[in-house]
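Q: Hydroxyacid dehydrogenase, please. Structure only.
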Amino acid sequence: MTAQVQDKHLYTEAELTDLGTRAFMGLGLPEADAADVARILVLADLFGLSTHGLSRIESYGDRLQVQGINARARVSTQAVAPALRLVDGDNGVGPLVGMHALRAAMEAAESCGVGVAFARGSNHFGPISPYGLIAAQAGYASIIGSNATTTIAPWGGSDARLGNSPLGFGVPNPDGDPFLLDMAMSVVARAKIRNALKAGQSIPDTWATDAGGRPTTDPKAALDGFLLPIGGHKGYGLALLVDMFSGVLANAAYLTHVKSWVDAPDEPQNLGHFFILIDTRKLGSTQWLAQRMNDFAAILHDSPPADPARPVIVPGEIELAKMARQRREGIALDAATVALLRQHAAKSPA
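A: Structure for Hydroxyacid dehydrogenase:
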């Protein structure tokens, strides 16, 4: 199935999963590894997170081609305690390492009720919500995080020392949609600041600082400066803790030890991730959890909206609605991304 919407075409999930798998095989990954990467990126596209979906073939592909990422990574897992796993990604593609860590944490949680996996030797692993969804569909609540290249100054500082690290939570609902929270540590993404610059608009002074660390409303100065964390000094503290769990505890790089994706594309980043999973089936029956989750959502949904056109929603609701719609109608993907996927897929041995 291929339909066209403006400058984008619509594809089925199966078509994009197959194309994505073959594209990463064309970049040197074994088929099973390529399938892991494609699964996470296609889920991102289904959620409407196109900047973290199959469009990542460009940046991942560039680094694979200059051997900044190891296409034949031998990801290994060590059980250091009944509920604790250490995953060495061997500088593999981020979603591959992420999937290994997720499976390791799920396996530990299945036997112990709680499972924790720390991964090192990784790279950008996509958005968190696909991992949260996979975990929730298997009955696991999750807390997942990763560190990132430095783009945020320390609170009160004037140079980039910590990354815009993502943090996510997921809670399953056996009789409905799970709750999925996936957020980065900055007030806004740099893309929003770039869009303001193109439009000739100013930005709120809570978004970013200039190169001297001073809050600015000038988008150009902001792009030359640093992103501000959510919640001021509280967000700064949260960003540090995500990096401590992802970097320090995982024995990965942290803060300024993380190599720049842009400045050093041929050097391993050694990013770290953490996956904390809870087997909700150990807490009670699926009927018990479903009743509580549905009641929880109903209490929120029943709040009269301040704006009738914008009813109250719960975390993940927008993304899951997009997923359901795109699974029915097709996934929109721009022509440039499809062309690059096909270019790499043409080199696939399969």
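A: Brief note, in case it's useful. The chain has eleven helices and 14 strands.
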